[in-house]
Amino acid sequence: MRIGKNVKKMIAFFLVFVMIAGALPVQVFADSMSEQENFGEVELFDEENEENEETGSEEIGEPEDFDFIFEYEDEDFKIEDEIFEEPNELRKYEIQEYFSETSDDFYTSSNVTIMAEGKCGDNLTWTLDSEGLLTIDGTGAMEDFLYLIDDWDYNSPWRYYRTDIKFIIISNGVTTIGNYAFEGIRNLMSIMIPNTVTTIGDGAFSRCTSLTNVIFENPSSVTTIKTEAFNHCNSLVSITIPNTVNTVESLAFANCINLKNVTISNKVTIIEMLTFSGCTSLTNVIFENPSIVKTIGFGAFSDCTSAL
Hints:
With 308 residues, this protein is α/β, with parallel strands linked by helices. The protein has helices spanning 5-55, 87-98; strands at 77-79, 82-84, 114-121, 124-129, 133-138, 140-141, 147-148, 153-154, 167-170, 174-177, 190-193, 199-200, 213-216, 224-225, 238-241, 247-248, 261-264, 270-271, 284-287, 295-296.
């Protein structure tokens, strides 16, 4: 029996169709499974993220090393068991605690080296360490320092380290701060005057342009703030003259361009010429009652253009 050509072609087409139809479901099924697997992975990832977003949880790694920093606001603060009502009190605590060799874990002798040291009075010594802390130790008067024409500078023994000095501690027992002792220490931000100091010398802190906080330990013993003592302390915003001071000499706070508030105690009798001249931001001057000021020198508040 002979099969015609047309029949052969039909049989060939039928066989090809059967082969294709047989293979197609396998491929489609495989593709479908692949898509489901991929889709399932995406869904799982989204569900995990969704769960994290709802609970606010996230993976926390190991803590990194950090430097200890004191932070506070201009309200009431608490560190451990100490309560502070004023920023000055906290700053005093901060300086004493941070730089105590016996009580602070963040400041230990193993981490600090002495950069320089020497004498700055008959019974006074100074040390400067690698953390930028200048410490004055001992008893009695600090040496007065002079301007050296050849060097165009004052002859304080730490003058070559001015840019390294960030903090200064003047120990109890020091009775005077010498003339131009800390002049031009531009990184100094805060200073505490111990209650054994009676005189702040000429230009002692002049041009300390970052100085924002001057703390007089209570009860203060300072009787005289001398000429240019805080001249050009551009970051100083407020100052309270202690109730032991009787004389504020000429130019003592001149050109403190950001000084806004001054409180003058009721023990001050003399404010010399140009004492607060050029304090262009000064808006508030309080004389404590009963004031016993007898002399306000020429131009004591001249060029205080904001208020007076």
